[in-house]
Amino acid sequence: MKKIIVIVLFLCGALIAAQAQTATQTVSLSLTDFIEMDFTATGTATGPTVTMNFNTVTDYVNGVTSSAQQLKVLSTRDFNVTVKTSSTNFTYTGTASPIPVMPVNGVLNAMVTANATGGTIAAPFTTFATLTSSNQNLITNGNNGGNQTFSVQYKATPGFAYPGGTYATTVVYTATQQ
Q1: Residue 173 and residue 135 in contact, taking contact as beta carbons nearer than 8 Å
Q2: Could you list the residue range(s) of the whole structural domain that residue 103 is in?
Q3: CA of 123: how far to CAs of 3, 13, 24, 59, 164, in Å?
Q4: Mind listing the pLDDT tens digit for each residue in 27-85?
């Protein structure tokens, strides 16, 4: 009797196994490298206007420092960040004639005040260093990730040689994957 039960159980198992089937499918992800950099204050690649007012003699003697401007890099690969100004001279808006020409170099400085990119602050931007219209390394070997931030402050020291008015330039940050 035990043999018959064992044979019946074996046949039932064989019938169930014969009815089971499997199917397979490959799932492929096609990822594209990307990099994006935004100002955290605006959530866009265009930061807020930084206005530095010179109202006292002390401002002219010591210069004026801006608040920190934070940028965020999102990148699928390690990256570098460079900085430059859009031109060699500030643009002028005012009533002075002839129109004064104020060079950016020697007047506008920048310093990295916070770095959470996993990279290195490039010399000389660990302290205030002059900006130029040529690309200068700002952050090197930043780590890939979705929230790599750094902050920059500006310091302007125009001296006493320029008449009143508004002097402006555009600072350009470029993040490049390695």
Answers
A1: no
A2: 32-177
A3: 86, 74, 55, 26, 33
A4: 999 999 999 999 999 999 999 999 999 999 999 999 999 999 999 999 999 999 999 99
State the total domains in the chain: 1
For residue 74, tell me if it sits in a domain.
yes
Per the structure block, which two tokens stand in for 67? 């608040």
Share of the chain above pLDDT 90, in %: 89
CA distance 175 to 171: 13
Would you say the pTM of this structure is higher than 0.70?
Answer: yes
| Distance (Å) of CA 79 to CA 33, 75, 84, 90, 110 | 12, 7, 17, 29, 20
Lookup result for tokens 């260093």: 129
- DSSP H helical segments within 22-123, as ranges? 57-62
10 part of a folded domain: no
153 token code pair: 């402050």
Distances from the Cα of 164 to the Cα of 74, 94, 158, 161, angstroms:
40, 7, 11, 10
Evaluated on CA atoms 148, 143, 135, 110, the torsion sign reads: positive
* Dihedral over alpha carbons 68, 74, 80, 38 (to 10 degrees): -40
Whether 2 maps to a domain, the answer reads: no
